[in-house]
Amino acid sequence: MIVYGDIASGNCYKIKLLLTLLGFAHEWRHVNILQGDTRSAEFLQLNPNGKIPVLVLPSGECISESNAILNYLAEGTPFLPSERLARARVLEWQFFEQYSHEPYIAVARFIKHYLGLPEARRAEFDAKQAGGLKALAVMEQQLAKTPYLTGSDYTIADISLYAYTHVANEGGFSLDSFPAVRAWLDRIASHPHHVTMQQA
Fold first, then answer.
1. Rounded CA gap, 86 and 126, in Å?
2. pLDDT per residue over 126-177, tens digit each?
3. Which of 63, 146, 65 is nearest to 102 (CA)?
4. Model pTM score
5. 10-22 and 156-165 helices, crossing angle to 10°
6. One domain, residues 99 and 58
7. Of 34, 92, 162, 165, which has the fewest CB atoms closer than 10 Å, so is most exposed?
């Protein structure tokens, strides 16, 4: 398998983390979005939407969208339950991540960490803060009741949310008011096969 991505991107780091946890052999090919790599004709053949990550299977088939890749890789492993309702709970959190979490926390991080918080995007950055804090509060409510987002087991729901939550400070979000979220971050990082963005 080949993965095209930028390890500093949360959406790409999700894939690296799961591949490492599962011990799956793969080749990582770095893509620099700021230099326009995703707009090249070669890359657009892999993903016409021009976004990372992209997983290329040995057959040559390509899968894009980070959570779709996670579901593909996790099939038949402990990170994705086979029971119908339990699987729906995983998807519930993954949709939450894409619609209620990533648009705020990840975008604020991109503006501040990648772009250096240019004045032209300051208002947009500020506008992302309330939505990000709301998403963290929803996670806090659940994680105060269960060790992982869907219950007692570590699943790809947690990987989906961990990716940008553990670097939320880079988007201007303090986790001081979210003790259950902080404990969950520590729980995930303590896994014996865990890999950080810096290590990956």
1. 36
2. 999 999 999 999 999 999 999 999 999 999 999 999 999 999 999 999 999 9
3. 65
4. 0.95
5. 140
6. no
7. 34
